[in-house]
Automatic annotation (TrEMBL):
<dbReference type="Pfam" id="PF00248">
    <property type="entry name" value="Aldo_ket_red"/>
</dbReference>
<dbReference type="InterPro" id="IPR023210">
    <property type="entry name" value="NADP_OxRdtase_dom"/>
</dbReference>
<keyword id="KW-0560">Oxidoreductase</keyword>
<dbReference type="InterPro" id="IPR036812">
    <property type="entry name" value="NAD(P)_OxRdtase_dom_sf"/>
</dbReference>
<dbReference type="GO" id="GO:0016491">
    <property type="term" value="F:oxidoreductase activity"/>
</dbReference>
<protein>
    <submittedName>
        <fullName>Predicted oxidoreductase</fullName>
    </submittedName>
</protein>
<dbReference type="GO" id="GO:0005829">
    <property type="term" value="C:cytosol"/>
</dbReference>
<feature type="domain" description="NADP-dependent oxidoreductase">
    <location>
        <begin position="15"/>
        <end position="315"/>
    </location>
</feature>
<dbReference type="InterPro" id="IPR050523">
    <property type="entry name" value="AKR_Detox_Biosynth"/>
</dbReference>
Length: 329
């Protein structure tokens, strides 16, 4: 396994991280334990979850939330040494109950959500506490005060963001700097070959402030995982997935042919493409099975040539560069 710093911090994390969104909802506890065992044995030290993972993710449905954290907590209690071998990350923002203060980023909710996550994870500290979405109704002075209090209490160590716009990142970081705080260590964004909008303003902001990028949905919800080949072999796709496939069929055909010519698994090519971006700290593997994790680990040894990168850009063109040059030059 290869490791790198989480943004500008001194913390080192594995280039492949374990995403646990499937734990509880699609992957049972026993299988989740096997996946975490293999991840740890392979050198993965970055485990990412969220308080909302493990159940139906709808704003009016709290039943089932927290199961992913509970599964991780149960796994940690099996061997006390595991906790010090991983960088544990979770998130706050989503509604966990039905009350008016059971969501978003008020100091009230951040404190209560953190305590609840610690209880489910069966640990006394969270290494990376991430804001799952931006809350523009809550002032940054309040948010940073709440986070800094948790840091002083030893309940969290670093703060990250997720799904922030470039100007949200800049606003948050400038407020933190004005208070002599470290601010954001990382940002989790939707980023893959099919979704490259963050190249306009988010990635430039992260590079400027020294904040690490952790892409989520790195294989485009399965589209970049060889979906055409899987369907040809008898795998069924949901109606929504089938609609996406038909919209992107020419690109998918070209992509899967390129991967075949390279002799590489399409999912691994998608992960390797992300890891060759210097702003990317770690990309998440969100396996449903231990076999999927083993396959994704091959990405560490996969380096794409300049010619391959150019071909990928032709198939999956980005927004044309960074803002404003992408549209105003």
């Amino acid at each position: 396994m290869n490791y790198t710093h989480l943004g500008r911090t001194g913390l080192r994390v594995s280039r492949i991280g374990l995403g646990t969104m499937n734990f509880g909802e699609w992957t049972d506890e026993a299988t989740s334990f096997r996946i975490m065992d293999e991840a740890l044995d392979s050198g993965i030290n970055f485990f990412d979850t969220a308080d909302v993972y493990g159940g139906p993710q709808a704003p009016d449905m709290a039943k089932g939330y927290g199961i992913s954290e509970e599964i991780i907590g149960n796994w940690l209690t099996q061997d006390a040494s595991r906790r010090d071998r991983i960088v544990l990350a979770t998130k706050v923002y989503q509604p966990m109950e039905t009350g008016p203060n059971d969501k978003y980023l008020s100091a009230y909710h951040i404190r209560r959500a953190c305590e609840a996550s610690l209880k489910r994870l069966k640990t006394d500290h969270i290494d990376l506490y991430q804001m799952h979405h931006v809350d523009r109704a809550t002032p940054w002075a309040e948010i940073w005060q709440a986070m800094e209090q948790l840091i002083r209490e030893g309940k969290i160590t670093y703060v990250g963001s997720s799904n922030f716009a470039g100007w949200d990142i800049a606003t948050a970081q400038c407020m933190a700097t004005s208070q002599n705080l470290l601010g954001l260590a990382s940002e989790q964004s939707l980023y893959n070959l099919t979704e490259r909008a963050v190249e306009l303003e988010v990635i430039p902001a992260l590079r400027h402030f020294g904040i690490g990028l952790i892409p989520w949905s790195p294989i485009g919800r399965g589209l970049l995982g060889g979906v055409l080949g899987k369907i040809a072999s008898g795998r069924r796709a949901s109606p929504a997935m089938q609609q996406q496939i038909e919209l992107l069929r020419p690109k998918l055909e070209a992509y899967e042919l390129l991967c075949k010519n390279l002799g590489e698994n399409p999912a691994n090519v998608a992960l390797a493409w992300l890891l060759q971006n210097p702003v990317v700290t770690s990309t998440l593997s969100g396996p449903r099975t231990a076999e999927q994790l083993r396959e994704n680990l091959k990405t560490i040894d996969l380096e794409l040539s300049a010619d391959t990168l150019a071909k990928l850009d032709c198939i999956w063109p980005g927004p044309g560069g960074e803002a404003p040059q992408a549209y105003a030059w």
